[in-house]
Amino acid sequence: MTIIHAACLLIDWLIDIAGKQLSAAAVRDVEWSTGTCTLGWSMQGLWPHDTTNNSYAEVTAVDRSPDSKYILAGDMMSRVRLFRYPCLREMALYKQHRGHSADITCVKFSSDGKTCLTIGGVDKAILQYEVKKEAAKKSDM
């Protein structure tokens, strides 16, 4: 279980040893069953490095795909962005879509990973997107 405090301190509780772990090294190789925490090593590329431009927006919701290949992120600027998982690199490439009028409060992949849902905060809308996987290019192989 992962807990985020108001000061953005990430604390992991490992149930099998019944104690909290403040050391990132202690949990770096743990395979988590879900990926819904907006903070963490595998999510660092979701956050923009340069906060002086207008593209900065707080990431409000994330979900990792069932096959652990993608991460879906919603933010305060109504953007839904799809990244490769883990997203470690600053300025990582992503696919972006918009549909909500304001912040996104929740994102979720379907159990088969073929669709995803987003929930808007202000507009209270639920939007469904189809996830289409692109064929690999020769340069990607």
Q: What secondary-structure arrangement, pairings included, does this model have?
A:
Blueprint lengths: L1 E3 L5 E5 L4 E3 L2 H4 L31 E6 L5 E6 L3 E6 L10 E4 L5 E6 L5 E6 L5 E5 L11
Antiparallel strand pairs: 1-2, 2-3, 4-5, 5-6, 6-7, 8-9, 9-10
Task: Give a brief description.
The chain is an all-beta fold and 141 residues long.
Descriptors for this entry?
three-stranded antiparallel beta sheet; disordered N terminus; four-stranded antiparallel beta sheet; mainly beta; 141 residues
Tell me what you see in this structure.
By secondary structure, the chain is mainly beta. The chain has two domains: 30 residues; 107 residues, no CATH class. 3% of the residues lie in helices and 35% in strands. The chain has one helix and ten strands. It has a four-stranded antiparallel sheet with strand order 4-5-6-7, with no helix packed on it. A hairpin with a 5-residue loop joins strand 9 and strand 10. The chain is globular. The relative contact order is 0.14. The N terminus is likely disordered.
